[in-house]
Design goal:
This protein has seven helices and ten strands. α1 crosses α3. The longest helix has 19 residues. The chain is globular. This is Propanediol utilization protein.
Length: 268
């Protein structure tokens, strides 16, 4: 007999420390910015045909149906609650698929492969330390194991319109040099500088213009800034306990929504 979990919670991420092509013709790779403060929750409410009760609509019913069928799981009535907006670059879609599968009783391996098969791209949210891998989201696999970034505090929010990931979109800058620098980085300041450069390259190539996050980083003495390379998440990077009072209000005044601060890195 299947034992249905009472509630499943799957943390998302908050943009990326870096993302781009691994060489001019290489795959899209990333180091995610793990975010335990934002999650998707799923609960199975009953049996019958597939029905999703959602506040924010982060999970397309056709994708949900395809995932359950691929994993051989029973349909039913599920509540899906997302703390991050769709298209925010915070992993809402992947987290929702994972949460749905687990709420439906899935306990095996191969979950990310199933998510990739139905959606075409995925985030490394099934890993206990998702920011300790160089991840290829269109391939759904680890390119290399990495040391996680040092402990950090991120203060950020969501700026501008959301943008859902297009699995066919590979128009990203070459970040092979940043990946090499990341492997050799030791201090949070070094990691933050790499994140800021990755964000700059992405904004230069992909937009949008008038992004306020880099200027905010300078004004508020952040070590650097990061962004969702597809999506609206933007954040300032501080050493733990050093984010100044008033920075959240400044982000809101600059147009960021759902402003939050959270710990990330090696000692979350």
């Amino acid at each position: 007999m299947i034992r249905w979990p009472d509630l499943v919670r799957v943390p998302g991420h908050f943009g990326e420390w870096l993302q781009g092509r691994l060489g001019a013709g290489g795959p899209v790779v990333l180091v995610t910015a793990a975010c335990p403060a934002l999650a998707v929750r799923a609960t199975r409410l009953g049996g019958g045909p597939l029905s999703l009760l959602q506040g924010r609509c982060v999970l397309d019913p056709d994708l949900a149906r395809a995932l359950l069928d691929r994993l051989g799981l029973a349909h039913g009535w599920f509540r899906i609650e997302s703390e991050m907006p769709p298209g925010g670059g915070a992993g809402a879609s992947t987290a929702a698929l994972i949460a749905l599968a687990r709420a439906a009783g899935f306990e095996g391996s191969g979950l990310i492969a199933a998510c990739l098969a139905v959606e075409g791209a995925s985030d490394p949210l099934t890993f206990p330390q998702p920011d300790a891998v160089l991840w290829a989201p269109r391939l759904g696999r680890v390119i290399d194991d990495l040391a996680p970034p040092p402990p950090a505090e991120i203060v950020g929010g969501f700026w501008g319109n959301g943008q859902r990931t297009d699995p066919a979109d590979e128009e990203f800058p070459d970040v092979a040099d940043l990946v090499d620098a990341w492997r050799g980085a030791e201090t949070l300041a070094q990691h933050a500088a790499i994140a800021a450069e990755s964000a700059r390259r992405c904004t230069l190539l992909r937009g949008p213009g008038a992004d306020p996050i880099e200027a905010l980083a300078g004004t508020w003495g952040a070590l650097g800034h990061l962004r969702a390379h597809t999506g609206s998440a933007r954040g300032l990077i501080f050493a733990p306990g050093t984010a100044p009072a008033g920075v959240e209000d400044a982000l809101r005044a600059a147009g960021l929504a759902q402003v939050l601060r959270f710990a990330t890195g090696a000692a979350r």
